[in-house]
Amino acid sequence: MDDIAVTVNGRRRPVLADAHTSALEWLREIGLSGAKEGCAEGECGACAMLLAAPDDRGGTQWTAVNACLVPVAALNGQEIVTAEGLGSPESLHPVQEKLAEAGGSQCGYCTPGFACSMADEYYRSDRAPAVAGEERGPNGFELHSLSGNLCRCTGYRPIRDAAYALGAPAADDELAARRARPAPVAVATDVRSGGGRFVRPVSLVDALGMLRDEPGALLVAGSTDLGVEVNLRGLRPPLVIAIERLEELRTLSVGTNVIEIGAALTLSEVERGLADRVPLLAQLLPQFASRLIRNRATFGGNLGTASPIGDAAPALLALDARLVLASSDGEREVRLAEYFTGYRQSVRRADELIRAVRIPLPLAGVAGFHKIAKRRFDDISSVAVGFALDVDDGVITSARIGLGGVAATPLRAHATEAVLVGAPWNVATVRAASKVLQAEGTPISDHRASDEYRSHMLGNALLKLYSAALIASKEVPA
Amino acid sequence: MSSLADRPVNPVVGLSAAHESAALHATGAAMYTDDLAVQTAGALTAWPVQSTEAHARVSVDVAPAYEVPGVVRVLTAADVPGLDDAGIKHDEPLFPGEAMYSGHALVWVLGETQEAARLGAEAVRVTYERLSSCITVAEAIAAGSYQGIARTVARGDAAAAMADSVHVFEGVSEVGGQEHFYLETQASLAVLDSEGQYFVQCSTQHPSETQAIVAHVLDVPASRVTVQSLRMGGAFGGKEMQPHGFAAIAALGAKLTGRPVRLRLNRTQDITMTGKRHPFHIVWKAGFSADGLIQALDATLTADGGWSLDLSEPVLGRALCHVDNAYWIPNVHVHGRIAKTNKTSQTAFRGFGGPQGMFLIEDVLGRAAPVLGIEPAELRRRNFYRQGQRTPYGQLVKDAGRLGTIWDQLSRESDLEARRGEVAAFNATHAEAKRGLAITPVKFGISFNFSAFNQAGALVHVYKDGSVLINHGGTEMGQGLHTKMLQVAATALGLRLEQVRLAPTRTDKVPNTSATAASSSSDLNGGAVKDACEQIRGRMAAVAGRLLDVDERDVRFEGGFVTGLGRFDERLTFAEVAEAAYLQRVQLWAAGFYRTEGLHWNPDLMQGSPFKYFAYGAAATEVEVDGFTGAIRVRRVDIVHDVGDSLSPMLDLGQIEGGYVQGLGWLTLEELRWDETDGPGRGRLLTQSASTYKLPSFSEMPEEFNVRLFEDAREDGAIYGSKAVGEPPLMLAFSAREAIRAAVGAFGPPGRSVELGSPATPEAVFWAVEAARATMAEAAIVAGDDDSDSGLVTAGVTGA
User: Fold this and answer.
1) Measured between CB atoms, which of B122, B651, B762 is closest to A374?
2) ipTM value of the model?
3) How would you classify this enzyme at the top EC level (chain A) (predicted)?
4) Predicted structure pTM score
């Protein structure tokens, strides 16, 4: 086993841990107990810490992530900062000072995590004073950056006020200065202990070679799904191969015929990199879990698990996305619509990984992503629907609708699409198609929603899309 | 008692202080029980073996666990030297031979590491002999499965008054439960020291009871057990009774192994093992006069108590004492009983039955108003208590006039009248979104119904350098009790806030304490701290009087200095007086005590005056309901709440806002779902993690949130004129439920009663909207307009 080490709060610390040990467990073992376990599944953010990640200009950005989900082995050679590293009771960091002053802590258990999530946004390099919006402060602070942190005491108002009162980092702020230098590179890692093995190959060739030789290996990027299985269901995979830092999986290019998104880019990176270039994704991404999760989660991971309730699939199905599957033998492109074969199953072979997602251009003119959940932030869909329609001269010329949560796999609403294509884009068409859409899939009843509600939500999603499109067309004078 | 409420000049109480641990919280330096545990060398970790059956006789083979490397010991019933019970009702065996619910801990495995303990627990073989079970309240009612004592609150002749009423409504209201979801799960750390003393650090609201349970399980006197509650990462009632058994397991492990034992439940264990807010099933009938005055209320409330009694009886008692909320009901007959079901044993949760009781009357009024043709706000206002009226259990409603004053102030300050017009205009132009605006009151009784709990102790030390250390019996769970107690002590001793320090809550400092619960810990412990401080101040005044050459009655303590009336030229520091007092052999420490005066309660008759006073408040909430999905947005909340003269305004605001949002979660979002089928998972909690049990996040925070404290509100019978604040604001969230009802109603024809599920989740709201639309469509057909839903899509445009 190689020696591994992580730089924590500016100090390099050797790591003695099992392959499955989370960063949270390890931090607490070395005496940094500011990070807490509130849920062990990336829902509450009490374990949030800051990770030095590469930004898109060769520098570093401080990204808040859930320490409970990341294996500490994945942090070999990396730099992290915890609440203890931001400041001390005698010398509070600005985010800590504002939280304390504003009454942002009551029981205090969630507070170190909030401090880290707030620091992520505090150090966002393009944060600047702006017109305050529904979820944005006058200092440009995006409230979505706190969407992955739960507080049971305050009701959130004082935490929001603390966030909106933050200024810019001072000239001598070390963490701000750190952003100018590159983030640590990915370090080849091979940890074997606790009955498991964690490997980080540093080239795609090595990764694909291992995958060919070890068909039982589990690929991991952000570990936002694997971490839950490890923590809650006691999964102890014999071999995990980490691929999220492979450069070939981190491309983002906008061509004339296709947009290619590296499968291991974090969703936050995709969100920033594409901005509003793909409206359907611009609608999807803020609703995808929380910022803490998006700072680690990837399209590759979300599609790799082939979960029927992942939010990416319905949107990408509507975009007619293709997946680039890579193996030692080369690459092949598969349409996402043909990728899923069953519950958590796909056409991806054991020796393949998802290298990139390709979205064909031009994009459809009418796009919408509808997520039905109990909560607006940080929830799992009971139903998710992605729409991409082309309307030419009042007639629907193409229609793609992706559905999640209504069958064993994400699927396309082909019957509805057939009703729409060639029909006029009006209330009568939409009504008729909505009835068809309501009957697509085979939704079940569970603790999230009843089958009947799910079906109604499918149909209503189209009605709502039409209503929103109509409002938009009236609001913008032609 | 008026001196209890009097404030000296320049008091430290009344200032907006930050939480005393705020800097520790924000930097991660604040320690919680399990933080202490991970830093305790050699500590073993305890892990439960949980039943997978809702009700079964079990036999457990622990031998395979010992095959797992790192397993040190498996704790079973045979290991218990004392009483094998985790509660005070003696119906909660720690090591049950009969599993009473899915998730019930059967035995505990101690491991060198958490991984070893977990794997050891997995290795334990349990065989089940399935027994019949009740999961729902309906099943329990059908099976006649009850526990504890049923109670009735009655006044007048409800049956006769009902018969005479112009309007009679009846219905069934189902009130959902609620998981506490304190961010810090249950945690204990037990150490057996060299002197044979058990030192148990525990995240508990009730250290004295934790101590008593540990002592009876170990069969040792209470004097050999010390329980410390440093701070809790939230509790909300969930750590009033629930921690005792876990503390006892840890202490038993420490006894048997001689090593420290840590026990911290993970989230899934915590949700599947510990009690929650009681769901209630309520059958009711209510009579109104022609002008909307309530004449009679007749109801049967069935609380779902779960598998054991726990605090179900007092919770039911408080529910029965709050069915009136703020309203005068001349004839009342409300019967309460406790169902026994094979679920977690439901327990205290902020409000303690009060919310469920109030749910009934607010549901009645909300359903009746459209049929009576009276604006719901007007209907509520009309039925308020007036000065001199008594509650159904016979207590005079003190300061009843405050209800109307608060209501009118809130109506004015929230611009209610104008906004009603705006909401109506919005609704007239939007077919697929409707807004609702509602205002509801809260009247909540303060004191423990169980009179003996209304006492508290404190121990205050003044050191000869003038520094002050206070101990009291209350625990800190985030509510800011310790900060308030520091403010009380600083006020009573005439010091600046930073001159007083507070020591962790421990049973060897202040014995026989009450739970930090019932919102009354500031009242009780504040009284005790003040008493102790005043004893010391009195003795120091005698010393200072001699030094300053004034009568001791003319000595003043303020801002850290001691002066004599009229002697402006000379002042002593507090430290100088303390030093002089020490040299003169004057006692500089004192034990304080407080008991609430004037309470009496007969639980058999359910009559008396159990409460010292009532906390009042009102909230106005505006929501928007999405007709496509049933999703709601809380657009604006305005609150005026009565905390007496606030001890600490920022903390009180925090309690009000936090309570409101927690109530909002209970009423609109948080949903406990159990497997009610006869399948292999029967009785299993389906929402057993943060990903399936959703509590409010940032997206549920009201977009506009205005909270004001009711001013000039001195409460004569309480510490420095203040009032309790912990629980009452939770019930302000009924205004959100009623606003949703109003918005749903706007999808249907006027005059239609709206039934709304609880919690009013998007799905529940959606079905209510569908029901309203269906009535609208029927009405339209009757009126000859068969194109009634033509506005479905296009009407959204009109408002754009």
Assistant:
1) B762
2) 0.96
3) oxidoreductase
4) 0.97
